[in-house]
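To: structure desk
From: M.T.
Subject: fold request, one chain
Message: Could you run this one when you get a chance? Sequence is below, nothing fancy, just the single chain.
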Amino acid sequence: MTPDQKFARYVKCSLVGFILIFIYYVIADIWFPVTPQARVYHSVVQIAPQIGGRVTNVVVSNNQAVEADDLLFEIDNSSYLLVYEQAKLAYDDAKLLNQRLDTNIKVLEAQISAAKAKQHEQKLLKNRGEKLYKQNSISEQNLESIRANFEASESSVTAFEAQLSAAILDRGDSGDNNLALHHAANQLAKAELNLSYTKVRALSGGVVANLQLLDGAYASTGTPLLAIVANKADLVADFREKSLLNMRIGSLAKVVFDSRPGEVYDAKIVSFEAGVSDGQLSANGLLSTTETSNRWVRDAQRQRIHLQLSTNETLLANMPSGARATVQLLPDSWFGQWLGSMQIRFISWLHYIY
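Reply: Done. Structure tokens follow.
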């Protein structure tokens, strides 16, 4: 065989090999797709104080594991303690004021009873005086004096009853339903709550990450000062849209992590992401923006899926957030699952090299 014939043979074999690989790629990308665009994500909780003040004591250190309600750092509580004491005094004053009002009400009720007794006495005198006047036993001047005393007793009762109504209105409801006492209790509860906010605690378990906070820093309300990487992890993978054509929730998958070359883990699809940021529309009052591209073949759109390991459930929790992985999806047929398993096993070996 001449050199030209050998070269032609090599070219033909290369073309056949390229065509076979291309056909395999097209079939594999539809029936058992694979992607290296997979990551382990942990939820990150940003810790922001609910009040402002100078940081006096940072309790935790960087990369320290914490549990829910663990103390993270403290804020100077001197001003909040004064507000709490003032609110407590105001609450005690409200209780004393209610006691004084209760005493005043009792006094007015006693005065009304005495005034009514006096009114009854003056009424009897008035009736007797009118009879005596008809009998010409007393003068008209004496009768007018008796009538004036009776009207004065009536006015006295009316005045005391008006004072009693005003006192009852000032007192309000009894017990904790009293308006003044309830207002003071709310102020006291608010001051106590703000005082408790001087001790900033973890809302969930996790690991303190990228801690830059030092004693003496000023904490502003709502400004994050540190982050906690939650223990709960989520494994996500991004596939081209057509690669997910034959996949559904519960479909089997194989996962290889870059940090664990040669190890293949069983997994399954638990959910499909509802959308991506490119598909988000905001009601911003602007006109729509059309997509422009000079490329004849545009980049394929990727969609995200969420996976769950069938075994080693604690593995993801112990991995750092952002850890990379390669995901191989498997079809329902046993032959496709065998090919996919061989493909991901080969990729796991390659992780020893790159």
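Reply (cont.): Residues 79-194 form one domain. Let me know if you need anything else for the meeting.
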